[in-house]
Write a structure and sequence with these properties.
By secondary structure, this protein is mostly beta strands. Helix content is about 10%, strand content about 25%. It holds the Pfam family Apex.
């Protein structure tokens, strides 16, 4: 026997005028487009590019009036949030499998997504899942690469290189290094150049030099 779909109304909704009114109000409230937990299924536009988009799947299933559930469909092309001010940004783009929040916009944002500037709404729709934006992350597993405060210390851990590309770098602290240190240019310690320093008290034989100057 084929499934019978009852919609969102409950069996008790027609029992009285109050129940019918309550059902209508419940239906209107359900169209308000509240935030939803979602899982990232695809990511487009990452790295040193303008902030991109994700395809996301709502994690809480739809439910009919009889209590039966069915999964949501995919939400395609939701803009994701990036911590950015002007031309400065902290890049940590979403990954497939991340869990985050979809915030449903009040109006159609399709034109703004294309133009990336103020635009007329793409249609008359309101509070539609198609007009979601993505903000991560919630309920995710423990990270393997990270930067942050742990037990009072600030840690930076990455599987790749830690690269600082700046005009200059100042450390106002004691520096401890484990492992070899390589420098392509000169090194100065206590005002003495590694490449250009000289030694006094040099003489033939088995004598050793004095300290560098």
């Amino acid at each position: 026997m084929a499934d019978k779909y009852t919609g969102t109304k409950k069996a008790s909704d027609g029992a009285s005028n109050f129940n019918a009114l309550n059902s209508a109000i419940r239906r209107i409230l359900s169209m308000g487009g509240g935030p939803a937990l979602v899982e990232v299924k695809a990511v487009n536009g990452t790295g040193l590019k303008p902030a991109g988009f994700v395809d996301i799947l709502p994690m809480v299933h739809q439910q009919d009036g009889a209590g039966r559930t069915t999964p949501h469909g995919m939400i395609y092309g939701a803009p994701y949030a990036r911590l950015q001010g002007g031309k400065r940004a902290f890049i940590c783009d979403p990954s497939v499998g991340d869990i985050g929040i979809a915030i449903i916009c009040a109006r159609d944002i399709s034109s703004v997504k294309i133009n990336r500037k103020p635009s007329a709404p793409g249609s008359f729709r309101q509070f539609d899942l198609a007009d979601a934006v993505y903000l991560g992350g919630y309920l995710n597993a423990a990270p393997e690469e990270y930067c942050g405060w742990i037990n009072g210390d600030f840690h930076v851990k990455t599987a790749g290189k830690f690269i600082v590309d700046a005009a200059e770098c100042d450390f106002n602290c004691k520096v401890n290094v484990t492992g070899p240190v390589a420098a392509s240019g000169d090194v100065t310690a206590g005002g003495i150049s590694l490449e250009k320093h000289v030694h006094g008290g040099v003489q033939g034989g088995s004598s050793t030099t004095s300290t560098p100057e």
